[in-house]
Structures are given as C-alpha cells and as structure tokens.
Amino acid sequence: MRSRRRPYSEQRPTDVGGGVWSVPVPIPGNPLGYTLVYAVESPAGPVLVDAGWNHPEAWLALRDGLAAVGMDVREVRGVVVTHFHPDHAGLAGRVREESGAWIAMHEADVALVKLIRDVDEGAHRAFQADMLRRAGATGGEVAEVTAERPQPPALPDRTLGDGDLVDLPGRALRTVWTPGHTPGHICLHLEDTGRLFTGDHVLPGITPHIGVYPYDRTDVDPLSDFLDSLAKVAGLGSLEALPAHEWIFQDTAARAVEIRTHHEEKLLRLAALLAEAGEPLTIWETAGRMTWNRPWEELPAMLRGMAAGEAAAHLRTLEVRGVIRRTAEVGPVRYALHS
C-alpha cells in the first residue's frame, strides 16, 4: 500500500532510528508544505541534512523540533545542504549564527550561491525578462511571470565533491553527487545504517523540477544529467530513502527506475507533440501544449515560468539525442523534428 503525503499540521518530529531524527519545517505559502530536515547524531554533536526555508515560523519549527527530540540547536556541529534551493539552504545561515556550525554544499552549487549573491534584484529581473522573451512569451506574460527571487542563502564554509565523507565523527556519511535538479545536488549515503538521504533527487510520490535557465542554453543538458544520476543511485541498491519531502520509503533503486521511465515516456510524448504541430514551436508554445497537473491557462504565473523551464530541459535532451533541431529563424528559438 502506497503512503500519502500528510499535511504539515499532521507532522511531528520523529525518531526514525539509527541515530537519525526527522524535523518537519514549514514552507509558508508553498504547496509542498514542508521540508523534512534530518538530524544525524554523532559523539561530537548532531549534523543537519538541510535546514528549511528562511522564515520566522520555519525557524521556530526547526529550533523547537530539535528541542522536542532532545537536541539544542546551539549544539549543532554542521549543516550539509543537499542543494542550494531556499527550502533546503534557507535556514543554514541562521543555524550557523546560533551554533557556529559549518555549512557544506557541493562545489557546483556553491558557485551558484556566489553568483546569486553577486547579482542585484534589477539585474535578476532583466535576466528573467530577456529569457522569457527569447522563449516566445508575450510582453504581458513577461511582466506577469517575472518574479522576485527569494533571499539568497548563506555562503557555505565547505565544499563537497563526489565520494567525500561529511565531517561526522564516528559515522560514515558519504556524498553522492546527483546533478539534475541543480548542478550540485547531492544525496548522502549513511553507510553505517544502509540509508540514503535523497534530498529532492528521489521522492516517493512526485518528481523534482528539472529545468534549463536560460531556457535556450546549449552548453548544458540537465535532464540527461538527472537520468544518469538516477541510474547511479539505483546502482547503490535497495536502500531505505530519507527524502526532503513527502515520506520515508523503502527501495530507492526501484523508485529511481520509475522516475527514469516517467521522463522517457514524457520525451516520447513531446516528440509526438512536435510531430503533430506541423511547424516549429517556441519553448513557450511547447510548454503551453504539454500536459501539466492543471490546464496551462490555470497555472499561476510562477508555475508557467517553471513549466517552460521543464519543457526546455526536455527539448534540450531531444536535441542532444538528435531527435529535434533548432530552426535558424530570427526571433525566439523554435524547435522541430529532424526531417
């Protein structure tokens, strides 16, 4: 029987065994509801896997949740962040202020944090607007979709690479680099218990956002990276998964295979969509014709922007595989099947 995602109101700090506790931290105003922050016990103090969104309500939930399982946030040794997104990295800086903890993240996401912190709000909005226009969005849509960005996360003190052990005395917590959702996304293999902290990489009921930004980049292929990362995780075996959202589940490998199959089917449907169109489509037009969890017209502006990023990632993979091509027309980039 498959579990279900429980609302935040039903979540409680929990001892999940093996010297690991989960603490649900809310994401105000977000349908995901909460991030599951994990505290891993060690003789030198606990290390957190992720930290949650930077918001007063979230901070109280983290602090009080740790206290409920017998931990003082001031004794936290470190925070290892699975990726730079604000629902994972947001409170890491606050924890560091309270405890002097180190913050660790994969080097590829550390580079992105530095970039984000160096770009002001005006430049960020200009970047978004230009990206949307090149994707084929209209002037009104550009104005509607362009959004304020969340507060940049704290700059980590330490970088992690694939295979590195996290500073967790008396235990073995190994970095597994799984790019796709972000360039520096990592899972963490707790080798002394046979468990895998999966971040957003492998979730039990949903799949993470895989996007290209700017939408028309030709130097990256994040969906292929993600598919390769899923195969890498599946190769670790049937580990118990401790994800950042939803619920803990068994057999990471089986779920990774399911998610790979989902995206391969999505790629086939996208190729068929382009064939049926009979003419080259912009990224924005393609996204508008794809199937989402609700009709395109009903998606909030921010979600339309994310849907376009997801469409772009799938188009990019089909382009790399030689299934589709970019046309040489002036104006927004367009895609068509190879003749």
From TrEMBL:
SUPFAM superfamilies per record: Metallo-hydrolase/oxidoreductase
Superkingdom of origin: Bacteria
Residue ranges of every copy of the Metallo-beta-lactamase domain listed in the record: 34-245
One Pfam family named in its UniProt record: Lactamase_B
Name this polypeptide is given: Glyoxylase-like metal-dependent hydrolase (Beta-lactamase superfamily II)
Organism: Streptosporangium brasiliense
Lineage start: Bacteria, Bacillati, Actinomycetota, Actinomycetes, Streptosporangiales
